[in-house]
Specification:
The protein is α/β, with parallel strands linked by helices. It is built from nine helices and nine strands. It has one domain: Vaccinia Virus protein VP39 (Rossmann fold, 3-Layer(aba) Sandwich). Strands 5-4-3-6-7-9-8 form a seven-stranded mixed β-sheet, with helices on both faces. α2 packs across α5 and α4 packs parallel to α5.
């Protein structure tokens, strides 16, 4: 499995990858379009197309510019609510949802083949604790999720944009992290994983600078048991490549 790309992404009608390059204030964050685009188009297989037709009415959530009630959406109140930002082809999200049946996962992605792939996995594994929004995650955060409504946020293997001139396109920026913090409950967690060391250092610095967060480890955290190894990650580890997990909690 290729690493999951989870730049912030946009419109359902034309799936594209989005990365946060907004550098303004919190007020600007609410009123500006904080996105840039890299066109991402992929072929939808017949299996994915079938899953989209059958699974979307049951597990898809249309974007609306008003808050949604997550307890109503998942038909239960006592479960933890986790936001998955950018799930690639959905393999890891499905495995985590299977591992943690008492948690509910709101998965946001714009790449249509990935949405179809995850819907196919939901059907094959009879999962009931995943809902999918195919839309720009910034707008989802700003308009659909109430403050202090999330118990956790997962961002696994975001695009590192390794060239220095592209660093402004990286997902993990101070303003985006502040937005995430408003949606996390006190005690809720933010888990970021990357296989690019320089980006890991970048992310660690950004998260350490956010006063609403505290690190659960001295620097990098041990891989939490709920995050499965992907095929890509396993291959990289065999070649001596590192993977860095960072888990911070909202204070």
């Amino acid at each position: 499995m290729a690493p999951m790309t989870n730049d912030i992404k946009t419109e359902q009608q034309a799936p594209k990858a989005f990365t946060n390059e907004q550098q303004g204030t919190d007020v600007e964050l609410k009123h500006r379009r904080i996105r840039s685009f890299v066109l991402r188009q992929g072929r939808v297989t017949k299996g994915q197309e079938r899953a989209l037709e059958i699974g979307w009415p049951k597990f898809g959530v249309e974007y609306v510019a008003k808050p949604i009630d997550l307890n109503t959406l998942f038909h239960r109140q006592d479960s933890s609510k986790i936001l998955e930002i950018g799930f690639g082809m959905g393999e890891t999200t499905a495995k985590i949802a299977h591992t943690l049946p008492d948690c509910d996962f709101l998965a946001v992605e714009v790449h249509t083949p990935g949405v179809g792939a995850l819907l196919k996995l939901i059907e094959e594994q009879s999962l009931t604790n995943i809902r999918i929004i195919q839309h720009d995650v910034v707008e989802v955060l700003q308009n659909m999720l109430a403050d202090a409504s999330l118990d956790g946020v997962h961002i696994f293997f975001p695009d590192p944009w390794h060239k220095k001139r592209h660093h402004k396109r990286r997902l993990i920026q101070a303003e985006f992290v502040k937005l995430l913090c408003t949606k996390l409950k006190v005690g809720g967690y933010l888990h970021v994983a990357t296989d690019w060391q320089e980006y890991a250092e970048w992310v660690l610095n950004v998260l350490n600078a956010e006063t609403q967060l505290t690190n659960t480890a001295e620097n990098y955290a041990p891989k939490p048991s709920y995050r499965p190894l992907t095929k890509f990650e396993s291959r990289g580890l065999k070649l001596g490549h590192g993977v860095w997990d960072m888990v911070f909690t909202r204070i």
